[in-house]
Predict the 3D structure of the following.
Amino acid sequence: MTVQVRAGRPTPAAERASPTNASASRAAIRPGPSSTSVQALTAARIGMWSAVGVAVFNVWFWVGFILYEPVLQAPWRGMNVYVAAFVPSRYLAWVVPAFLIAPALLTTIACLHAWANQDKRTWSLLALVFALPGATLMAALYYIQMTVVPNDLVHGVTDGLRLWIYAPPYPFTFPGALEGVGYGFEAVAFLLAAQVFERGSQQGWLRWTFRATGLSTLLVFIDPVFRLPVPLVVADGALGLILLSAAPLLLANLWRREIKSSNLRPD
């Protein structure tokens, strides 16, 4: 009897024995930091610029907000006095970058998820799950502050506006409450994203910087519930300026080095 040998797909045993197939399989399931896949490089390239954007918008926000701080801390003398002293440019100087941080941060976390190693993607996906509602809340809040609030104040329309402005009794206002929820989600996103990075070297610095950023941001959620001492809030604000600039810049530098060392170009 003649035995016919069918050419085509190798047997499972042959696949297991082939070092080429084994290497290809490992490469297919590891599109993260140790890979040079097009997907990882595309995520790194987009994420690098969005991370730089987060840092730039954060510095812009704090410069504008520090200049606005005397208004926020001034004794409340009534809505008419507030409307008369309102300066739209001074107000928008910090509201606009606060709005821009939201999509930039969400893009950075999404790119981090696309870049992460397969065994770290549960952490990166959870970070994205928390970053999405946080960014959505913050973008909606600051869009209202860019449009509705200045328009009504300039035209003297103050009905129902009292709890929508940044003035005492902030943070016991709608902006204070929405910021608490939004920053709370983003704080958890930073803590979860920290788990994506490996221990040691630059990724070790990123791991601890992301954790510190998450813990610092969490105080914005706690403050309206349990009123924190003013010196602690001020110190946390200073940390926010440093950490929310350092963390994305470190990540952008990591991605820049990976792109530079790779021979592949993303589509």
Q: What stands out?
A: Residues 1 and 7 are 19 Å apart (CA to CA). The chain has ten helices and no strands. Confidence is low (pLDDT under 50) at residues 1-36. Residues 37-261 form one domain.
